[in-house]
Amino acid sequence: MSNSIFQHFITLLLLLFFISPTFSQKSFRPKALVLPVTKDSLTTLQYIAQINQRTPLVPLNLVVDLGGQFLWVDCENQYTSSTYRPARCHSAQCSLAKSNSCGDCFSSPKPGCNNNTCGLLPDNTITHTATSGELAEDVLSMQSTNGFNPGQTVSVSRFLFSCAPISLLKGLASGASGMVGLGRTKVAVPSQLASAFSFDRKFAFCFSSSNGVVIFGDSPYGFAANVASLPNVVYDSKSLTYTPLLINPVSTASAFSQGDSSAEYFIGVKTIKIDSKVVSLNTSLLSIDSNGVGGTKISTVDPYTVLEASIYKAVTDAFVKASIARNITREDSTPPFEFCYSFDNLPGTALGAAVPTIELVLQNENVVWKMFGANSMVNINDEVLCLGFVNGGENPRTSIVIGGNQLENNLVQFDLAANRLGFSNSLFARKTDCFRFNFTSTV
Ligand SMILES: *[C@@H]1O[C@H](CO)[C@@H](O)[C@H](O)[C@H]1NC(C)=O
Ligand SMILES: *[C@@H]1O[C@H](CO)[C@@H](O)[C@H](O)[C@H]1NC(C)=O
Ligand SMILES: *[C@@H]1O[C@H](CO)[C@@H](O)[C@H](O)[C@H]1NC(C)=O
Ligand SMILES: *[C@@H]1O[C@H](CO)[C@@H](O)[C@H](O)[C@H]1NC(C)=O
User: Fold this and answer.
1) CA 233 to ligand 4 center in whole angstroms
2) C-alpha to C-alpha distance for 384 and 220, rounded to whole angstroms
3) pTM for this one?
4) Which residue ranges does the record assign to the Peptidase A1 domain (predicted)?
């Protein structure tokens, strides 16, 4: 058998046997699953998903890592489960995870410590620390959804994840026991769920400053209107704007093997406009070069958008000019933000304070990611708000990192089969917010 046919065969085997779902009701096959998310808004600004794992089920708080390679949890602190199984070296699961590494553990066997097991490199993408950890399987359980409410609970009996030492939790929100990776690998959560339930390789997230959702699979996305008398606001593929997802050929993980591509999601920003004027930039920074440097990615672990130094300077200069034209009063800076303004003579709108509009122009002039006050600014107190972009310095790995503040109340969909990213722009324009998904269960 040729290598690629063999790979295919392995994938098929996995589909059939390893990632087999167990349905709480045999006839029920979910079209989509929903994961509730809360934001640790007081300290780390991380988005935390609630997932149930193990037998008996244990509720876990896991930091959402959009570009993460897989789900990893701390197995050192009280991991008890009758369904935990380490994945052997050179097993089909191990090749699905693209690992060749084989580990032993010189202590008594327990979850995270077994001999002859497949090794992965769980990555804390907040502190940029990777360690080694064994690949394992256990039960994972989530609620299904019709796009409007959660429904019946379903589980995957042999969901692949990596164990990590407790030390890897450093830097995560208090109470978090790992990270949930939604990246582009076959063992990341979206691919495993799509295989287990044979649904579209698609997922979407919608986060607000307090909470939100991740929805896996194909479904409409329904949110209650912010006016009680109005009907639900429903998004679907037709109401999103799409841009191609780009592949960065070089891994952006803290530790990786030569030849690995990045598990993160990149898009192609062509120009940036502020109040409709093009900002002059060194455009070579906007594409990804053969070393994997440059380009624009989406990140849920960066709380604010980070711009390479020369882009930061050009964008903030243009923003200051446009603010002067709008008679907005400048205030002292509030680290990490340099450009702050007074709320005085700054009218509020449905889309936030009436500051200059920032537009990321994508594959053509008609495909534009728009940032109004609600996404571009951060409120410091009742009097002051600041431009929520930070300086990434010279020669960063990635030139533009679109972070949490700029993603909030924007429904963002990753259509992996079509290799495209869909976005709604601010939900405020349609009188709703990302925290208005109705979590009242219909079962
Ligand atoms: C792994 O094998 C070594 C050497 O045979 C042994 O000392 C150790 O206890 C084993 N560890 C586990 C977790 O079984
Ligand atoms: C533009 O950026 C590229 C990539 O960092 C760099 O090599 C080049 O010197 C820059 N050009 C200018 C005019 O600054
Ligand atoms: C800004 O203020 C100046 C002087 O007070 C005034 O002439 C101008 O119309 C104002 N511009 C805007 C956009 O409000
Ligand atoms: C949430 O869903 C439940 C069940 O369908 C429904 O009874 C309730 O009215 C909904 N709440 C809102 C705010 O729409």
Assistant:
1) 13
2) 38
3) 0.93
4) 47-424
